[in-house]
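Need Replication factor C small subunit's 3D structure for a figure. Predict it.
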Amino acid sequence: MSEADAETVPGRGTIWVEKYRPQTLDDVAGHDDITARLKSYIERNDLPNLLFSGQAGIGKTTCAVAIAKELYGDSWQSHFLELNASDERGIDVVRDQIKNFARHDPGAVDFQIIFLDEADSLTSDAQAALRRTMEQFSDKTRFIMSCNYSSKIIDPIQSRCAVFRFGPIPDDAVAGYVQYVADEEGIETTDDGIEALVYAADGDMRKAINALQAAAVMGEQVDEESVFVITSTARPEDIKEMVRHAIDGDFTRSRSILDELLTERGMAGGDIIDQLHRSIWEFDLDDDDAVRVLERVGEADFRITEGANERVQLEAMLASLALDN
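Structure prediction for Replication factor C small subunit:
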């Protein structure tokens, strides 16, 4: 297929996550309070060191790049260094790349920005060296760090930063932005298709847009079925039915649904655990049943994480729930 032909096929030609990445803080969806505070720093040209924490795909990197673009305009790349700490996590990256950039004269601007993505991957020695670098070049360099777990960032660095905790993007914001992308690309969607994208994304905008692009290639319309297939996600009602049969003592029927999810749909045990955990309170269970399910889910998750067989642990979880009946 030629490039010209590829452009006429929905989902081909470009990566939508990058094509529709917000360019300004005003365009960032779902974090109005955070973007309002960041814009106030930009308006005063008084940016502190920043620490963004939260799960993947919720806008941390987008906000960091948007800050640089709004501060520096077209020359933002000259004053902005982006490093992924998970690639180079040792002390050498601080001593070499970071320190070399930090000591540069920012020229016409008041300060330059170093953005460390996945900063929680830095070793303890690297973080200690980074703390000293932050102090040494505080007059001409600002640091923006993003991480999944702020608890893995040492306290001396946290105390030198304004901490912003990014929560999962609200469902209505995900739905609105996904619909906007679909409209821009001329993709026909159904209401249940959008709902399925929101459910599968679980607050992760990047996952939602990637799923939309993948589903758009499968057919003329993005509906619930295509989304669940492409994301290898179980329907919420299937998870609910599996748990309900187990609680009612029907282990055979519950195990049959589990087998379908693992074998026919190719789901990973960890994904089933994740869906179970976030859906428990939507199952209309009484408190005692919900507590029992949570206890069994936690035990199965721990054992799977430690390397136990996924199928055995999930079947044992359902059997335990059935025996408690």
